[in-house]
Design goal:
By secondary structure, the protein is an all-alpha fold. It is built from 5 helices and no strands. The protein is elongated.
Length: about 180
């Protein structure tokens, strides 16, 4: 009798964990698809290129985020955050989940601030360039300036579900 109860708990635990992983992956995929659809709709039918990708801004945001997490000593906790949000809350210490939530929050703030820093840097570069005298190029440079902020916001949108799940685990059961 005890064996069947233990087996039922294992099956329930596995199905619960599989459901959590599936919901997380499905939710993140839906967010990426929605962001892509929004970008595509904003571009309009007259733009053939689709989505403008600025690799330097993306690399700057990712690099700065990982550098800040490493200096703060939260890089390992950031990596563990993705596993914690699908794990059983009773298996993880409260402090570990809290540190993982802090790491995710720090990465979101760093991504947005790095995007703003990129935009400010590009405004300064625009003001010092001879292109300021040619108004037909101004919209291109303004769009290029804002792409860093946009990437920072996309990072925040992707990390918000992870942060929300971790905060839910922290607040559950009065922990």
């Amino acid at each position: 009798m005890k064996a069947s109860v233990t087996e039922n708990r294992k099956v329930t635990f596995m199905s619960s964990k599989i459901r959590k992983v599936f919901l997380l992956v499905a939710g993140e995929t839906a967010i990426v698809i929605m962001i892509g659809a929004i970008f595509r709709l904003m571009m309009g039918p007259d733009i053939i290129a689709g989505i403008y990708i600025d690799g330097w801004s993306g690399l700057s945001i990712i690099g700065m985020t990982f550098a800040v997490l490493a200096v703060a000593g939260l890089l390992r906790d950031f990596g563990r955050a993705f596993g914690y949000c699908v794990a059983d809350a009773s298996d993880i210490a409260h402090m570990q989940v809290k540190k993982a939530a802090d790491a995710v929050k720090l990465s979101m703030v760093t991504a947005v601030l790095t995007g703003v820093l990129i935009a400010i840097y590009r405004v300064i570069g625009l003001l010092y360039s001879p292109v300021v005298a040619e108004p037909e190029f101004m919209p291109l440079f303004l769009a290029d300036m804002m792409i860093g902020i946009l990437y920072g916001i996309v990072v925040v949108i992707l990390l918000l579900p992870i942060y929300g799940r971790l905060k839910k685990q922290i607040n559950r059961d009065g922990r």
